[in-house]
Amino acid sequence: MTLADHWPRFRTEKGGPILDWKRFELAAFHYEPVLNLTPARFTHQTVDKQTAKLAKRLSPGTLRRDLACLRVFATWLVREGVLPSVPLWSVPAAPPPRTRFLTPAEMKAILAVDAPAWFTLATRLAMASGQRINAVLGLKWEQVSHGLLDFAAGAAARQKRRGVIPILPDVQALLDAVTDRGEYVIGGRSRIHYHIYLHQWRKVCAVAGVEGASPHSIRHGVATALISAGVPMLEVSQMLGHSSIAITQKVYVKFDPTYTKNAASRMAAMLS
What whole-number distance in Å separates Cα of residue 118 and Cα of residue 129? Predict the structure, then answer.
């Protein structure tokens, strides 16, 4: 009997109190090889081995969340008498806060660099939609219809909340220029994975003179630019695919200190 055989009962018992069960499902997906082991083979070595494999394509933050979910499951297994104890596996160091965002000028500089067509298309779609780069790389042609980029459709959307973006003429022109109409918009028949995009991203940023930016800085830059331009917070929240406007306010207002300039100016006028 494997650990995975206990998962349905764990879900039945713990699914209610756990607020984000999708987070647990994603952890189970990433650590499926570990969950398919028998209790006797569930050791810190087997967990660490899978973590090392995942580290090639997942961020430290994602791995930390996955391992936290795995620990909850393992603790439950100990309580149920399935495991004698929770293995002391390694946990990646917490990543630094993501405070870097791209300015519109930096976005233009990146797009101006001569790069592979797939990279330019993926980057342009990320800048036009504000979606995470993994969502863009995983976008399928079946999600492009009726004038919309439906990032919220399909199995991938269960991992993280995503938006539905109207296709404007400039983006439509890019899509029309794609000749390989395989399953994926980026890459055609074969999906281009994050680590490949990241390698190209670093090369392009070096040429563009953009320092200290990750692909996620695109999403931060889009949100910050829109908020700075006075776009209603609700619209920005819906574009990013956030579940509530509170998340948008909490995460992105801090990137633009000028957002509260109007409020501060009014208060100063009252005190003058």
Answer: 16
Number of Cβ within a 10 Å radius of residue 236: 22
**pLDDT single digits (tens) 54-68:** 998 888 888 999 999
Q: What is the C-alpha to C-alpha distance for residues 181 and 69, in angstroms, rounded to an integer? A: 38
Q: Residue 62: which region, alpha, beta or left (left: phi > 0; alpha: psi -120 to 50)?
A: alpha
Q: At what angle do helices 216-228 and 233-240 cross, to 10 degrees?
A: 160
List, in sequence order, the alpha helices (H) in the chain.
Answer: 7-14, 21-30, 32-35, 44-54, 60-79, 104-111, 117-129, 133-137, 169-176, 194-208, 216-228, 233-240, 245-252, 261-271
Q: What is the identity of the amino acid at 186?
A: I
pLDDT band at 22 (very low <50, low <70, confident <90, very high): confident
d(C-alpha 63, C-alpha 31), whole Å: 10
pLDDT, tens digit, for every residue of 136-161? 999 999 999 888 888 887 644 444 56
Measured CA to CA, the distance from residue 258 to residue 255 in angstroms comes to 9
Partners of 140 in the β-ladder: 184
Q: Is 187 left (phi over 0), alpha (psi -120 to 50) or beta?
A: left
From residue 12, how far is each of 3, 84, 185 by CA, in Å?
Answer: 15, 22, 38
Best CA proximity match to 35, nearest among 87, 74, 65, 68: 74
Number of Cβ atoms within 10 Å of the Cβ of 23 = 16
Q: Does the model's pTM come out above 0.85?
A: no
